């Protein structure tokens, strides 16, 4: 199999804003029974394993969410390390219990980046797992009292975008 490039990439001359926009939607990897892709690799459908299975909405604090994808290489293996991080504040016992659950499960994520693209992360590899979950009260009155969640996974490529039709079918907007 030849691994050759088939296109170039033109520089974009436009304004851009980084970060994740709005909510992050997480589902248990075990609750996904199938993912459909079009010829370009975009996700066109997600089938849940049962009627009770769903994507859960997490609303991060403003300007606290980020998604990083980094190529990792070895002598033989190549994969993309996907890292999704976000913070939540105003912790209650119910939120702490949800954070405990996040610490122990394997997930996939859907979110909108500030570039306007919706991404489906954790789709083709080890999915996403909590690699860090830090809860801090801060030191000074003005310090953030937050929980920062970091989810990581080794995947066979960069996260694909997900179509508007697939989002609508999942009830995500």
Largest sheet, strands/sense/barrel: 8 strands, antiparallel
Question: What does the radius of gyration come to?
Answer: 17 Å
Helix content: 10-25%
Secondary-structure element series: EEEEEEHEEEEH
Shape: globular
Helices, by number, come to: 2
User: Average pLDDT, to the nearest integer?
Assistant: 93
End-to-end distance: 40 Å
Give the topology, please.
Elements: E1 20-28, E2 32-37, E3 43-48, E4 56-58, E5 66-73, E6 78-89, H1 93-104, E7 106-113, E8 118-121, E9 128-136, E10 146-155, H2 164-170
Antiparallel strand pairs: 1-4, 1-7, 2-3, 5-6, 6-10, 7-8, 7-9, 9-10
Describe the protein in words.
With 173 residues, the protein is mainly β. 11% of the residues lie in helices and 43% in strands. The chain is built from two helices and ten strands, in the order ββββββαββββα. It has helices spanning 93-104, 164-170; strands at 20-28, 32-37, 43-48, 56-58, 66-73, 78-89, 106-113, 118-121, 128-136, 146-155. Strands 1, 4, 5, 6, 7, 8, 9 and 10 form an eight-stranded antiparallel β-sheet that branches. A hairpin with a 4-residue loop joins strand 5 and strand 6. It starts with 19 loop residues before the first strand and ends with a helix.
